[in-house]
Design goal:
heterodimer, A: 713 residues, alpha+beta, three-stranded antiparallel β-sheet, B: 335 residues, six-stranded mixed β-sheet, four-stranded mixed β-sheet
Chain lengths: 713, 335
């Protein structure tokens, strides 16, 4: 492949990666993206004489000016700034691609692509950014090296007459100057380049000052965790495989089951108006204090006997913290600002609605501590009262509740009967088909007509029926499920695992979890197969990316240093209690990161020592050169004695010529001494003491003669 | 000794300077670093790592280009002041597998050399030697010392220019500028390779006959004449002798010399070079006499290099008041 074609291809790959990086975020609208990529493809065919015409470049300059004016105008009209800037940079890139005549334009293409990569750091934190980044790691050295060679060729041929220059350039561009070996070699550089990048990434101190945070408020939209939820909204996403939560429950063991029914509680609703669940206004949330990374939510700080659940939560539009059953405490790493850990702002509202302040839109990694015997909750009559609210028009539902619980002796008995009727009597089935309401109340249609529905219908029916019987109950939204991801060793809970259930207050037992949804729900979830495997791999990579790269901070660095200390330290690590662990991050650096960091430190230390030694080494010529200098000085002295001193500005070679002109009769010795001196001094040859002494003897003998120069006539 | 070996293996120290693109690159890197530190955005740290790594990689690759190469210089056989001559520079890539891309050699003639004598090698394959020539116009006659070769590269990314200076000492004797005007009119018209002299000796012309004496070469016996005379006679011959031209150049500058004396002297040297060459061409043997000595006698038809060499090395000698003019014995022509 010719040099020109290869250069064109790598320039296009790099510019394509840059434009793709711009499109990672939602800032660019789809039409803009389509136009951008269409222009990128079209520019491939623009070459030859057409782009060499002066009018071509002028037309593009005018077009860019018009586009800039348009963007400024849109800005004044209130269009968001970021998309305008991104579109402008994309237009610049397209313009360069359409005008790639010389090395200069190719270098500009590379620079703009790099700018796009930098800009996209604030557009996306997804794994797709990693793909683009690694593409850059491979392609950028190619592009820069080829661009440099082309620039050098152009610059070296610049002094030639125009025709000759054009011909020489064309010849070079047509040549196979670089081949597969060059590409493979440069691509192989990606490995050390990546290793160095990783080392710099790991070692660079994370002391974010936070003066200009460009963190973005993005996240998956998940219904059911906001201020209200419409009956029918929640649960219809059962087939959506998008992972939301990753959970490492305690005691997973080496071979955990493929599926687990992990119940992760999100939020609760106390008020039902017949169609919609809401939280009663006035139930203000309260901030939660913390000690180190520990938050006593819902009950207390963790103890040695508590069990640890590691949870990775994707950024959601509602910053809800999901809790496993019997959770007693939370452990959340702080955000690092200016090198200082700033504790998370965690708030809890009545109904155990736990939320965090989402400043960076990056989701949350946290630990939930659970206890086998959590503290018993005290009943607050005022609080319980609101969980007895039943909307008007549900008399028939209440009657059905009474009918189903006829003869029950206690609230617990009533609860069991209602759950059994809904869940396992066979009269009601799980279905994602929402019954047609035609203006009627959803529960009326569900209980008496359709007799099918998804989890929200079941939980709402149970909650309303319990309330009609005087048992405080609240509707809970969260997730139920979990498919084991062997690549990341965690259980993934997807959007499709979103679930709704009920908590009922039973005297002496507190809030009890009741799930009336029939088992048929499990059959409706996302399917398995190879696509599921691919998704699992992708999600594991994405999670590592989010944890190890996007979420890497000063605490992680400290943690690496601690790991290294433990690695090289002789002391046995002490058993750590939860209290001791409070001092550590829950983040664990990957093994390769430790090795890389160690190698980098060793390399830096080695280079430092070598440099120090080199500086400490005495200056001056090596031993052989010292002998040669001594011999040559003896010759200088002898010639001075003979009346022909060597002027300081005269070199040894000049001295030879001068003495030859003067008719010196011992030219053989002169030549030999001068040659040996120059060879040793500058040519790297050696001259040992014996040879040096022999030459000195001959010089002394010569100096005794009186007939070395012709007599003046 | 080990230290010496190590130093030799690594070669002379490297020097580095930013190119324009390199300055921009470093500026962008610093900007990304500042943004990363400011925002704590890990993806910016990642980009920062990439940019810094490219800088390090650039240093390593440029080192590979400069390492294990041998450079050399081939001087022209003759060089004249004010006349362009070609100097050849060679680059041998001693590496077994890696080519050296984009290497520039700069020939340096001492610390006050303005430089600019460069050749460029786009690609020198492993084990390959390439030659490039550049044109140099020596400013004045005498020894031109070429002391160093700078091996320079901006490969791979053009961010930095790295070079090492290698001592390669050569001396080029620059002959004086040879005057363009022909000077043959000033040389006597007696031409011919072997003008006969009046002295006897080996030669082509017969001077006469004489009686044979013991020791005469049998080949010189004139057998026909000997037969007619009845005694043995031999031929006597005239010794062959070419015309000898001695040019006198007095490099002594009188104490009261005018301002333009040096310039006039150089013009004289230039004219002398021309006359010497013309005379040799016309069949005269030529030597040059100056205060510093006498040049070798160059026979007719021989190259004038020894004479030009003598002229090239003439150094102006300031004379004291009343110093005598240069005296030359024998047949001379003042230059």
């Amino acid at each position: 492949m010719s040099f020109a074609r290869l250069h064109k291809i790598v320039s296009y790959v790099l510019s394509g990666l840059g434009l793709f990086a711009l499109s990672l975020g939602p800032e660019l609208e789809l039409p803009a993206e389509l136009v951008m990529f269409a222009a990128w493809i079209a520019s491939w065919f623009a070459e030859g004489e057409r782009i060499q015409r002066p009018g071509w470049a002028r037309a593009w300059t005018i077009a860019l000016g018009v586009f800039l004016a348009l963007q400024v105008g849109r800005g004044f009209l209130g269009a968001p700034l970021l998309p305008l800037v991104l579109e402008m940079t994309a237009a610049l890139q397209i313009s360069r691609l359409f005008n790639r005549r010389t090395a200069r334009e190719h270098q500009q293409i590379a620079a703009l692509a790099l700018l796009h990569l930098i800009a996209s750091t604030v557009l996306s934190t997804e794994i797709t950014y990693a793909v683009v980044f690694f593409g850059f790691v491979v392609v950028l050295p190619w592009t820069l090296a080829l661009g440099h060679l082309r620039a050098e060729v152009e610059s070296q041929h610049a002094p030639l007459p125009e025709e000759e220059r054009e011909e020489a350039l064309a010849r070079t561009l047509r040549s196979r100057l670089v081949g597969p070996g060059f590409l493979a070699g440069t691509a192989a550089l990606a490995l050390p380049l990546f290793a160095m990048t990783a080392t710099v990434f790991l070692a660079f101190p994370r002391v974010g000052l936070g003066f200009l945070s460009l963190g973005r408020d993005l996240g998956q939209r998940v219904s059911g965790f906001g201020a209200d939820v419409e009956l029918g909204d929640f649960g219809t996403i059962r087939t959506d495989p998008t992972v939301v939560l990753r959970v490492e429950p305690p005691g997973m063991g080496e071979d955990p089951p493929e599926r687990l029914a992990l119940r992760m509680r999100g939020t609760s609703f106390d008020h039902y108006d017949g169609r919609r669940w809401t939280r009663t206004s006035g139930m203000e949330s309260e901030g939660v204090g913390h000690a180190d990374d520990f938050y006593p939510v819902p009950h207390r700080f963790p103890r040695r006997t508590d069990r640890r659940w590691t949870i990775v939560l994707d950024a959601l539009d509602e910053p809800v913290i999901f809790l496993p059953p019997n959770a007693v405490a939370l452990e959340i790493p702080p955000r690092m600002t200016g090198g200082v850990p700033i504790g998370r702002e965690v708030r809890v509202a009545p109904g155990l609605d736990v939320r965090y302040a989402d400043a960076d839109g990056l989701g949350l990694r946290y630990v939930a501590w659970t206890a086998a015997d959590p503290p018993r909750e005290e009943a607050d009559p005022d609080q319980l009262e609101r969980y007895l609210q039943v909307p008007d028009g549900h008399e028939r539902v209440a009657a059905l509740a009474r009918e189903w619980t006829e003869g029950a002796s206690s609230d617990g008995d009533r609860v069991e009967r209602l759950v059994a009727r809904l869940q396992s009597s066979g009269a009601y089935t799980y279905s994602l088909d929402t019954p047609r309401l035609d203006g009627r109340l959803p529960l009326e249609v569900f209980l008496f007509e359709a007799r099918r529905g998804h989890c929200e219908y079941f939980s709402t029916a149970l909650a309303v029926m319990l309330r009609s019987l005087g048992v405080p109950a609240r509707n809970i939204t969260g997730f139920l499920g979990g498919r084991f991801n062997p690549y990341g060793r965690y259980y993934a809970l997807s959007q499709g695992d979103a679930h709704s259930w009920v908590e009922a207050w039973l005297p002496g037992r507190g809030w009890v979890v009741l799930d009336p949804t029939p088992a048929g729900r499990d059959a409706v979830g996302p399917g398995g197969g190879w696509l599921s495997t691919v998704r699992a791999i992708f999600d594991a990579i994405q999670t590592r990316w989010a944890d190890d790269v996007v979420g890497y901070d000063l605490r992680a660095q400290i943690s690496i240093v601690r790991e290294l200390r433990d690695l090289f330290g002789s002391d046995e690590p002490e058993a750590r209690t939860p209290e001791a662990r409070a001092e550590e991050s829950s983040w664990r650096p990957p093994g390769w990161a430790l090795i890389l960091l160690g190698l980098a430190l060793i390399a830096v230390a080695g280079a430092w020592l070598a440099r120090r030694r080199a500086r400490a080494a005495p200056d001056g010529p090596p031993d052989a050169a010292r002998v040669a200098i001594r011999v040559y000085r003896a010759l200088d002295r002898a010639m001075a004695k003979l009346g022909h001193p060597r002027p300081p500005e005269r070199t040894p070679t000049e001295q030879v010529a001068a003495l030859e002109t003067a008719g010196f009769r011992e030219m053989d010795l002169l030549h030999e001494v001068t040659r040996r001196y120059l060879e040793v001094r500058y040519g790297g040859a050696t001259l040992d003491e014996r040879e040096g002494a022999a030459l000195e003897r001959r010089i002394l003998e010569m100096a005794r003669r009186r007939d070395l120069f012709p007599r003046a006539e | 000794m080990a230290k010496e070996k190590k130093r030799r293996r690594r070669g002379p120290p490297r020097r580095l300077k930013f190119t324009r693109e390199g300055r921009v690159f470093v500026f962008v890197t610093v900007g990304v670093g500042a943004a990363a530190v400011n925002t704590g955005n890990n993806l910016l740290y990642l980009v920062l790592g990439l940019l810094l790594s490219l800088i390090v990689l650039s240093g390593i690759l440029s080192e590979l280009v400069l390492r294990s190469v041998r450079v050399g210089r081939q001087l022209p056989r003759r060089a004249f002041a004010g006349t362009p001559c070609l100097v050849e520079l060679s680059l041998l890539n001693l590496k077994r597998r890696l080519p050296s891309y984009s290497v520039e050699l700069e020939d340096v003639a001492g610390p006050d050399d303005e430089g600019g004598r460069r050749v460029w090698f786009l690609k020198v394959g492993p084990g390959e030697t390439q030659l490039r020539a550049y044109s140099r116009t020596p400013a004045r006659r005498g020894w031109l010392r070429l002391t160093q070769l700078r091996v320079r590269t901006r490969y791979p990314f053009g961010l930095f220019e790295k070079w090492r200076v290698i001592d390669v000492e050569d001396a080029l004797l620059v002959f004086p500028k040879v005057d363009d005007a022909p000077s043959i009119a000033q040389v006597r018209a007696e031409t011919g390779p072997d003008a006969p002299s009046r002295r006897l000796g080996p030669g082509a012309e017969v001077a006469g006959l004489r009686d044979y004496v013991a020791g005469d070469d049998a080949r010189s016996i004139h057998w026909r004449r000997s037969a007619s005379l009845g005694r043995v006679v031999v031929r006597e011959r005239q010794r062959d002798e070419a015309r000898k031209l001695t040019l006198v150049v007095d490099e002594g500058r009188p104490a009261d010399a005018s301002e333009g004396w040096d310039e006039a002297f150089e013009a004289l040297v230039s004219r002398t070079a021309r006359r010497a060459a013309d005379a040799l061409e016309r069949g005269a043997a030529v030597e040059i006499v100056s205060r510093s000595g006498t040049s070798p006698l160059v026979l007719a038809g021989q190259p004038p290099d020894p004479l030009w060499r003598h002229l090239a090395l003439l150094e102006i000698v300031p004379l004291e008041d009343g110093a005598e003019a240069l005296a030359v014995r024998g047949e001379v022509t003042a230059a």
